[in-house]
């Protein structure tokens, strides 16, 4: 209650502050919307450096940023009703917003067309990344005509618990503290302080540019402030070196952008977070909102396999490194998700914040107590993909043996499944394990490969005995006869041949029962129409494109691919679900495995189908 009261008092103070226009002596436009009001998700851009990210809104507002790590408490949290703002906004009453990423990077360029000219602001998190210190670069450019910008700056660490303290300016550099964070801001020497918040009216001459550099560190500063010119040059060079051209895919620009997203969401540990945010609702008022700032084993494997489909690139090795470490450390007790450092995901708790409209603010995740059998199969599929490039060392092979043993010991146990529901004997989980065993057996010596293949045969036969629907397709579990779009994956990955009648019947059932308007839904939830129960699941849409391609239906595959790649934000980023009726993004943002699925589909569809290929 004390925390909630503090938040209410803080919110009222902010409202008063904006109403009184104290920042600009009464010059702030009466039509300017407070940076505390969130936007629809399609209007956000993400910048990231592997260790953390920031979401930038159309008013130039940093609406979300956790520092120094992905799962740290947010320092800018207006996205979910919290405090903190770093807004660089046109000072005029009338403007329209747009923007784009610099190709193959997560360097975002906001663009505003005003009644008097054009203003751009380049945004990036500096690279190479420092795990202890975030460096946010912002460069305002007066492209046409002069640029007048309102700048508001307030770090509020701990989801708004900590105001800025010790705020002072020396030699044109502002320094401060906010909770555990040390703050340093360059580029605003003429800013004024109003109730602990920095305000600046910035004027940039036509054709000129102005740099802001924000440093947030968990350690005291011991070096000179970051030089903006040097930092921009190093950041651009890092992205150039990190992201391949991917010219052999059917959509090189989007494939490169998806690769950049995966690169930006992958930490130095090799771990890739599932999404940058928490608490964004999959469906308004239905309590389906979670914290995805952690590394899911399954998602990591999806990303690694997508990279492998494109070529021999470093992100594949990152995925293998992280998965190997988790298997060797936890063995058959492998958790579904970890922090990026390989630690335990904290239990779910609620924040005393309003949350994003339609959702609620929760940190942590209850996934800790789950057993997800398919994670072992996906781990083997990832390791097999790396073996195809001769990238496995002895440690990686040990990890593969651990995964095989875990499958051998546990494949008959119920698990939570891919959708993290109630425990059951899910067909998808078991068949994914069979696919992983077959894929890894191809690269193993016969003494290992033969028994692994035999175990895969046993698992497929047992699954067929209790999960084959009377119509000839796979069903979700022995007690659930519905079709599930996740059942496209076992055939894609080689558990059973593509020409097997069970494969053909399953693809047809997903097409006829779970698709509408070119999108695919996970499974039928209840008597409601598909789009009333939940959003279309974009991962499943790209899987359907690959399934159609695998069957030789290349024109159909292209239709699925194009329909689903269009379901992105204005900024080109994807969420987990897409509300077809309202044409809105749903769920945490951006969702890494959707970008991985686009990347893999863009590569698969560029080559003739290979129906019986193992480990597609």
Explain what this protein looks like in three dimensions.
With 616 residues, the chain is of the alpha+beta class. Helices cover 34% and strands 20% of the residues. The chain has helices spanning 2-20, 228-242, 252-264, 297-310, 314-330, 374-387, 394-410, 427-443, 446-467, 489-492, 501-513, 530-533, 538-550, 554-565, 592-604, and strands at residues 45-48, 53-56, 62-66, 74-76, 85-90, 95-101, 108-114, 118-125, 133-144, 147-154, 165-170, 173-178, 181-186, 192-194, 197-204, 209-217, 295-296, 337-338, 349-350, 362-363, 515-516, 519-520, 536-537, 577-579, 584-586. It has an eight-stranded antiparallel beta sheet, covered by helices on one side. A four-stranded antiparallel beta sheet has the order 1-2-3-4, with no helix packed on it. Strands 5-10-15-14 form a four-stranded antiparallel beta sheet, with no helix packed on it. Strand 14 (192-194) and strand 15 (197-204) form a beta hairpin. Helix 13 runs antiparallel to helix 14 (554-565). The longest helix has 22 residues, at 446-467. It starts with a helix and ends in a 12-residue tail after the last helix.
């Amino acid at each position: 209650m004390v925390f909630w009261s503090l938040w209410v008092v803080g919110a009222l103070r902010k409202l008063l502050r904006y109403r009184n226009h104290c920042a600009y002596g009464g010059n702030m436009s009466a039509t300017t919307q407070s940076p505390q009001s969130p936007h629809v998700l399609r209007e956000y851009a993400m910048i990231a450096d592997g260790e953390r990210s920031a979401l930038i809104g159309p008013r130039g507002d940093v609406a979300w940023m956790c520092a120094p790590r992905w799962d740290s408490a947010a320092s800018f949290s207006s996205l979910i009703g919290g405090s903190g703002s770093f807004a660089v906004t046109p000072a005029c009453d009338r403007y329209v917003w747009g923007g784009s990423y610099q190709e193959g990077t997560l360097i975002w360029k906001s663009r505003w067309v005003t009644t008097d000219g054009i203003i751009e602001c380049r945004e990036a998190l500096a690279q190479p990344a420092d795990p202890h210190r975030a460096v946010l670069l912002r460069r305002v450019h007066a492209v046409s005509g002069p640029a007048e910008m309102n700048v508001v700056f307030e770090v509020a660490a701990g989801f708004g618990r900590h105001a800025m303290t010790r705020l002072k300016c020396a030699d044109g550099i502002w320094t401060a503290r906010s909770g555990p964070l040390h703050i340093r801001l360059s580029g605003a020497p003429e800013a004024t302080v109003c109730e602990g918040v920095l305000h600046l009216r910035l004027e940039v001459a036509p054709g000129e540019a102005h740099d802001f550099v924000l440093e947030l560190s968990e350690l005291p500063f011991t070096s000179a402030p970051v030089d903006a010119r040097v930092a921009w040059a190093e950041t651009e060079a890092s992205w150039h070196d990190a992201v391949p051209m991917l010219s052999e895919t059917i959509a090189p620009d989007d494939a490169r952008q998806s690769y950049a997203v995966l690169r930006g969401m992958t930490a130095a540990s090799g771990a890739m977070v599932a999404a940058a945010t928490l608490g964004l609702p999959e469906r308004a008022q239905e309590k389906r909102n979670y914290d995805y700032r952690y590394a899911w084993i399954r998602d990591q494997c999806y990303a690694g396999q997508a990279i492998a489909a494109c070529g021999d690139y470093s992100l594949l090795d990152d995925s293998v490194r992280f998965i190997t470490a988790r298997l060797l450390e936890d063995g058959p007790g492998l958790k579904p998700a970890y922090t990026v450092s390989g630690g335990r995901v904290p239990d779910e708790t609620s924040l005393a914040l309003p949350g994003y409209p339609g959702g609620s603010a929760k940190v942590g995740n209850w996934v800790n107590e789950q057993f997800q059998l398919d994670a072992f199969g996906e781990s083997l599929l990832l390791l097999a993909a790396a073996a195809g490039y001769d990238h496995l060392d002895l440690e990686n092979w040990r990890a593969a043996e651990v995964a095989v043993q875990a499958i051998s010991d546990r494949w008959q146990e119920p698990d939570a499944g891919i959708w993290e529901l109630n425990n059951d004997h899910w067909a998808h989980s078991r068949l994914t394990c069979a696919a992983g065993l077959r894929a890894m057996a191809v690269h193993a010596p016969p003494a290992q490969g033969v028994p692994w293949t035999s175990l895969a045969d046993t698992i497929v036969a047992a699954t067929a005995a209790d999960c084959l629907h009377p119509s000839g397709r796979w069903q979700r579990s022995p007690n659930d006869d519905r079709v599930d779009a996740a059942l496209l994956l076992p055939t894609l990955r080689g558990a059973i041949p593509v020409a097997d009648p069970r494969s053909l019947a399953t693809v047809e059932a997903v097409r006829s029962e779970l698709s509408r308007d070119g999108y695919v839904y996970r499974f039928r939830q209840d008597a409601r129409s598909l789009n009333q129960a939940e959003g279309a699941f974009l991962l499943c849409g790209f899987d359907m494109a690959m399934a159609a391609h695998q069957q030789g239906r290349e024109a159909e595959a292209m239709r699925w691919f194009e329909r689903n790649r269009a379901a992105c934000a204005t900024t080109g980023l994807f969420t987990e679900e897409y509300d077809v009726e309202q044409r809105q993004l749903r769920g945490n943002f951006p969702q890494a495995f959707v970008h991985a699925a686009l990347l893999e589909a863009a590569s698969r569809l560029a080559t003739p189908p290979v129906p019986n290929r193992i480990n597609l």
